[in-house]
Write a structure and sequence with these properties.
alpha+beta; elongated
């Protein structure tokens, strides 16, 4: 599983930011990097009060997650 981790800040208050993520199954890290910008653009259209400030793709470590 790959996670697209990004920072979203309020457009009206750029110092108010949150960490967000989208997860994908059966996607390679390279495919995540290549497809990140369209996914983030779609997310931003759905959340117009936010502005995406930075992002990265990473593998999800299921061993470190709590249930």
């Amino acid at each position: 599983m790959i996670e697209l981790l990004f920072t979203a800040c309020l457009a009206t208050a750029p110092d108010v930011c949150e960490q967000k993520s989208l997860t994908f199954v059966d996607v390679t890290p390279m495919a995540c990097m290549m497809g990140a910008q369209p996914e983030l653009a779609k997310w931003q259209v759905e959340h117009p009060k936010f502005s995406v400030q930075g992002w990265k793709c990473r593998m999800v470590n299921l061993d470190s997650q709590t249930i």
